[in-house]
């Protein structure tokens, strides 16, 4: 075979292989997604004389402000397939890798973003990539008109990146295969990478519910960032930080991730256990966050309505978590079903709110005597396999807030009756007790009409 013929055969084989990959890529997208991606490609090519391709400058203009130009340049290198431009076929193959890719394809993307010109990947390079991702989420929050004011942003950002890169040392990563090994047990990072790629290319998330008030194309609705309601960010400083939102929301059931409703905060509603109980009852699943006087931030996810009673409630979807000084999720074990407990004003049972463990030995406990609690784990909480969450086993509360997650639940008559006293339902029983001179044991469970203005307790000093 002549040299020219051999070269022609090689080019033909390469072209055939490329077409095969293109055809495989487009099968990963729905008809709606394909239509959207075609419009995006046309938008990128808009200022080019040849609107069938785009160059690096066109991509930079399209993604301008969303990620640094150095990142855009690396994305372009991945897309152009050693050409000076990106065709529609190359674009679709890249989009399949960026937003539909398996872990090995995602590893190539991460490796390319972190590697230097001399093909060396330092730990600091990976830190910068992860920090850049978080900056993208900050921009997304601002577009959602969420002015998140947190007391712990800097610390939790550092802790989040540290946890992501735990056990990774300089020069451990020499290739995309090394990144793949590291990424396999990091599902949150995999989701973040896909999310950021969709944000960069202005791709809508069709799995999210459309919000009419934010239907403009400039707002990207991230699947990892909920819509926050019933909160005025101008006068509220939260225990939440961006990394903690990403971590917690990623571990929630999918049907609860889209909306978070602020139902209680000490600074807004007062340091009162009766107010806490009233605000969180019948609100559906919720997230409890606590900061102790020594700066540890922790909490738990309650999978069902909080309601007063003598027994443990909840499900295996419950979990505990730590945000500072370490960051971790502690999921339920099969040892017992002591997921959630809430009681008050009883003589023979613990009065307070607890998650995990057992009476007097909870993984997370808030006492009815507001402002004190405990986190006991020697060496682990049996229900959640969690370590001690607070700085000291017995702790004093510095800040406390609760977010209900998911849609507002429909309250049934049966559920609503649980907040009432039996004395309200049976006036004859009340009169009989009065005649006999008996104490009304259920008075402690009565819904106080004045409980919106509770007695405010001073939190214990440091």
Commentary on this structure:
- This protein has 462 residues and is an alpha+beta fold.
- The chain has two domains: 16-212, Recoverin, domain 1, CATH 1.10.238; 252-417, no CATH class.
- The chain contains 16 helices and 13 strands.
- The chain has helices at 3-26, 31-44, 56-63, 69-80, 88-100, 103-114, 123-143, 153-164, 176-183, 187-200, 242-251, 266-269, 273-280, 413-417, 422-425, 427-436, and strands spanning 53-54, 86-87, 227-229, 259-265, 286-292, 297-302, 319-324, 328-331, 341-343, 352-358, 361-367, 372-374, 394-405.
- Strands 3, 4, 5, 6, 7, 8, 9, 10, 11, 12 and 13 form an eleven-stranded mixed beta sheet that branches.
- A hairpin with a 3-residue loop joins strand 7 (319-324) and strand 8.
- The radius of gyration is 27 Å and the shape is elongated.
